[in-house]
Write a structure and sequence with these properties.
CATH superfamily: Lipopolysaccharide (LPS) transport protein A like domain
Order of helices and strands: HEEEEEEEEEEE
CATH architecture: Sandwich
Distance between the termini: 111 Å
Largest sheet: 6 strands, antiparallel, barrel
Radius of gyration: 27 Å
Strand content: over 45%
Number of helices: 1
CATH topology: lipopolysaccharide transport protein A fold
Helix content: under 10%
Number of strands: 11
Shape: elongated
CATH class: Mainly Beta
Length: about 170
C-alpha cells in the first residue's frame, strides 16, 4: 500500500509543478511624475506671459498632463500687465495636439474689459491663443449678459463668436 501512495503523491507533485505559465507584465499607464502645490511661470524674451497655479500635476509617458484638482492661469500682455485669467475645476493638457481642456466650473475673466465667461468645458490652444467650446456659455458684460451654445474666442476674450446666441442685447448706433 505504501508504494501506491508514494506513486500518487509523486504524480500529484509532478503534475502541480509541471505547468507554470509566465505572465506578460501589463505596461504601466499611470503618471511618471506627480508634482504638488505648483506655481509655474512662462516667459518669452524675458517677458512674463503666463502664470500657472495648480494643487497637483500628473505627467504621463506621452507628455500629457493632468490637473485633477484644477488649474488657475494668468495671462499677461506685452507690457507685463495682467490681462485675463482662466480657472477650471479640473484640466488636462494634450501634448500631441498642444491643447488644454478645462472642465467643471470654468471661468475666464478679461480684467481690462470687465468681461467674464462661464462654461462647463473649455478648450485652449496656446499656439493660436484661442479658446473654444461646444457647451453652453454665459458672458457677463458691463450692462448685459449673453447666453449661448458654442464659442470661439481670443484667449483674452477681446473678440469672440457665440454660435447659438440667446439673451437680451443693447444695440449701440
Amino acid at each position: 500500500m505504501k508504494p501506491i501512495w508514494s506513486i500518487i503523491l509523486l504524480a500529484t507533485l509532478t503534475w502541480a509543478c509541471g505547468k507554470t505559465e509566465t505572465q506578460v507584465p501589463e505596461p504601466y499607464t499611470g503618471p511618471l511624475r506627480v508634482a504638488e502645490n505648483v506655481d509655474m511661470l512662462y516667459h518669452e524674451k524675458n517677458q512674463l506671459k503666463i502664470k500657472l497655479v495648480a494643487k497637483t500635476i500628473s505627467e504621463f509617458q506621452n507628455g500629457d498632463r493632468e490637473f485633477p484638482h484644477g488649474v488657475y492661469l494668468e495671462f499677461y500682455d506685452e507690457r507685463g500687465d495682467l490681462q485675463s485669467t482662466l480657472k477650471a475645476n479640473e484640466a488636462f493638457y494634450f501634448k500631441e495636439e498642444n491643447k488644454w481642456r478645462g472642465r467643471g466650473d470654468v471661468i475666464v475673466v478679461n480684467l481690462q474689459k470687465n468681461q467674464q465667461l462661464n462654461t462647463e468645458e473649455l478648450f485652449w490652444k496656446p499656439d493660436t491663443k484661442r479658446i473654444f467650446t461646444e457647451k453652453f456659455v454665459k458672458i457677463k458684460l458691463d450692462q448685459e449678459i449673453i447666453f449661448g451654445t458654442g464659442l470661439d474666442a481670443a484667449q483674452d476674450m477681446s473678440d469672440y463668436e457665440i454660435k447659438k446666441t440667446e439673451g437680451e442685447f443693447i444695440i449701440r448706433d
